[in-house]
Amino acid sequence: EPEVTQTPSHQVTQMGQEVILRCVPISNHLYFYWYRQILGQKVEFLVSFYNNEISEKSEIFDDQFSVERPDGSNFTLKIRSTKLEDSAMYFCASMRGQSEKLFFGSGTQLSVL
Amino acid sequence: DQQVKQNSPSLSVQEGRISILNCDYTNSMFDYFLWYKKYPAEGPTFLISISSIKDKNEDGRFTVFLNKSAKHLSLHIVPSQPGDSAVYFCAATANTGNQFYFGTGTSLTVIP
Q1: Which of B23, B31, B56, B94 has the greatest number of CB atoms lying within 10 Å of its CB?
Q2: How far is CA B84 from CA A11, A84, B16, B88, B101, in A?
Q3: Residues in chain B closer than 8 A to A43 (CB atoms)
Q4: pLDDT tens, position by position, for chain A (113 residues)?
Q5: Residue B41, min C-alpha distance to chain A (Å)
Q6: How far is B68 from chain A (nearest CA, A)?
């Protein structure tokens, strides 16, 4: 079965540094998402992306965050200046069409020191 | 603003018995509901879904029930197996948007 691929699986960074989390969604999918889960808390929506632009974003997704689909396969999340509270598991997800199911990657564990 | 709620953080069930996981939502615009299963250090995997035009959907040992008037859905696992031990998330979305709202999860432990 096709799957969403995320790299790296773990990322450790110093506070204030920039990080880029990478995702390869399933090839025929049109909707792309980033979610995160802080340890012990709920899975939180960050942003959705469709037709080469952001379609929705949450309050968490402030100016420090950006997403890009630089080519036909990759979907990246950039955090410009990381904060301690950005430490979380970040999940990429994709969906073929609206009101279909989301497929998640295995996540990137981001630790900000 | 918790639009999807799972009020039981954990549940323990004996192997072979029924597991019932519950989920409540507040937004009447939600029309598609999903259950995901998550093992530690892995991403959530899709389990089963239900559209608001139905009140029940079954797939093998898994059945989801939807009560729209109560804004409540439940996932039944029968019979429960030790491999079912995981965290279960319910999620909801509205046809007017493409954002999925997740509950906080219920950790199910199936005791052999």
Answers
A1: B23
A2: 30, 34, 11, 10, 23
A3: 44, 89, 102, 105
A4: 789 999 999 999 999 999 999 999 999 999 999 999 998 788 889 999 998 899 999 999 999 999 999 887 899 999 999 999 999 999 999 999 877 889 999 999 999 99
A5: 7
A6: 18
